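Researcher: Let's continue the batch. This sequence belongs to peptidyl-tRNA hydrolase, and it's 137 residues. Same format as the previous ones, please.
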Amino acid sequence: MHAWTDWRLGLPAEAGTLWWIFLWLSLGACLGLLAAASLRRFPNISRRPRLQNASKVTQREGDAKSDPESGDSEDEDGESFKMVLCVRQDLSMGKGKIAAQCGHATLGAYRQAARRQDPFLAPWTMSGQKKIAVKIK
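Model: Same format as before. Here are the C-alpha cells for peptidyl-tRNA hydrolase:
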C-alpha cells in the first residue's frame, strides 16, 4: 500500500476521513431523531415534577376554615379556577379596545399553558373557563 491510501479501506486518506465524518454525523442525526420522536411520544417526560392533583394546590389553610356558603359559586371540590386579567387605566383605551386586548391575552395565555402542559389548564377548562378583568392604576 502506498502512503497516500487509508490502510483500513484502501481509499485515499482524504476519502477515508470523509467516510468516518459522514458515519458519525449520520449516527448523531439518527440519535437526535430518535430522541425527538421519543419526546413527542411521551410528552409527560419533563425536567420539572408535575402536580398529581392540580386542584388541591390552590387550597390554602384559610380557605379550608372558611364558610362554604360564603363567596361566589365554586366547584364541587370547593375551589374555582379563574383567569384574572389586569387592565391598566393609564393607557386610555376604549371599552372595545380593552375587550379585544383581553381576548388576545386570554388566547395567548391559553396557548402558552397548553404548550407547557400546565397542570392548572385542565381544571380551569373544566370549571367553565372563567375570566375576570380588574382595573389597575
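Researcher: Any comment?
Model: The radius of gyration is 28 Å.
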